[in-house]
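By way of example, we now present a protein record of this kind:
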Amino acid sequence: MSKLYNILIKHGQLFAIVLSALIVGVFFLIITAGSAEFEALPDEEQYKSTIFDFGLYSAFYLVIINALIALAFGIWFLIREPKRSIKMIIGLVVLFVFGLILYSTAESGLDDGPIASTLENFDISDEVSRLVSAGLTTTITLIALAALSIVVAEIINLFKN
């Protein structure tokens, strides 16, 4: 694994740029080759067209592959450097506990009103509604904490210099 890590450190950005240029080039060729037929389709048939599928699937699979690689390197770092990983583990546990607290206190939204009818129309259960609510609240809280930490760090750097 460390050999792969060293190769990616040395040539990873070049590989990413070449791969993305190749995917964009193929996608561009597909679009330009089929654009006349796509434009000739009626509007309702254009929604069913598969001309954009290569680009969409490429983006989807690249996100999945990158997430798996990031997870693999994270686990590798945890195994290789357990003492340096303690802060990360504590942070993940705190984040998980915070998410659980938000999930347990979240309201379902299934009581009444327009949100309740939307949830009912899309067959969204109480648990899923609470999970989405907890996830959104966690994300917004993390964004606010990140912005606050940037401001505080800049103020501290202002007084250091």
Observations:
- The chain has two domains: 1-80, 82-161.
- Residues 79 and 85 are 9 Å apart (CA to CA).
- The first helix runs from residue 2 to 40.
- The mean pLDDT is 87.
